[in-house]
Amino acid sequence: MRILNTQNNFLVTSAYAYSNDLFGIRQSPFESATKQLHAKGIGANFVTCFQAVRYNDLRFTTSPDNQRRKIMTEPNLIDPRTLYHNDKFPQQEQDTPALQQKMQPKPDCGEESYRGHDRLLNRRVLITGGDSGIGRAVAIAFAREGADIALQFFPGEEADAQEVAALIEDAGRRVILLPFDLRDAAAPKEIISQTLTGLGGLDTLVLNAAQQISEVSLADTPLVQIHDTFKVNILSMFALVQAALPRLQPGSAILTTTSVQAFDPSAHLLDYAATKAAIANFTVGLAKQLAEKGIRVNGVAPGPIWTPLQLDHGQQPGALPEFGQESLLGRAGQPAELAPVYVFLASNEASYVTAQIYGVTGGEAINL
């Protein structure tokens, strides 16, 4: 790589700092560097340099006198085992619906850490289950990347939803709140209608809402619970996509949240795991159907993530302290660790990515 400028050290260091910051998880001490570079008229060199260091590995530059020298930069390494809470969680329960604001410790959804770079500028996005957990992290990240958000949540979760709405507005983006119960067959069509009216269109769907109730025995699982789990987790996806399709243009994206449970089901989550397997299948099949329209469809398969879902009968009594301890990294994941994957899949950077399921599992493999 040749940098035709006498300010090589500053240029490379600035590009390195920018690349560290690009994916929105750490602030950089050089946050004004890019403005300084453009002010000095060396933006093109910055782009070249950024391409060399965007993956944070050490590179060499070739100076004008063809002398090679190493860029002496501290590697930005973080131990994934200790990055977030890695002790046992305190045993706790909540009445339905469980609220994130009452959890101890509170999940990290990127409220303090995520920084955007206009990767989703002016996108109009519907997020289901957007008040807490993974949906909240995605809403925060998308808003800070420049998107306007329609936020579906279940009635009774308004306190969490209002917190997210405030964060979206703080990012300078529009937000509309949609309190709908996805067990209601009429809800999906009304959600899409209000999204189109409130945002003026729709470019991206993040189908994330879910119900998870732990039951030891199928014999003791109420049939109405099984029906409700399928209605919320998978049947609503069919209905939402059906209602949205006439308004989706080439370049639009549909993202689903499946689960590691789709590939390695737990005995006590039989109905939930079955819906997540259906979602994975739905995602790949829909991608094949919509490719000719220029619409990409991808899914994310989380592992054990610390969200209100776990407190709302999502785990067996007494099991919460051990939640996530069995992962290869020895801890549960945080919603903030998934948001960058959703951002990538929704963005133009993923223009050649469709019909894929991305695992964020703490180490467990997924296989369709």
UniProtKB/TrEMBL annotation:
Q: Which SUPFAM superfamilies match?
A: NAD(P)-binding Rossmann-fold domains
Q: Which UniProt keywords apply?
A: Oxidoreductase
Give the matching Pfam families.
adh_short_C2
Mind listing the GO molecular function terms for this protein?
Answer: oxidoreductase activity, acting on CH-OH group of donors
Gene3D superfamilies cross-referenced by the UniProt entry:
NAD(P)-binding Rossmann-like Domain (3.40.50.720)
Start and end residues of each stretch annotated as Disordered:
92-113
**Feature: compositional bias, Polar residues:** 92-103
The record, for PROSITE patterns, names: ADH_SHORT
| Signal peptide limits | none
User: What family does this belong to?
Assistant: Belongs to the short-chain dehydrogenases/reductases (SDR) family.
The protein's name is Short-chain alcohol dehydrogenase
- Organism this protein belongs to: Lapidilactobacillus concavus DSM 17758
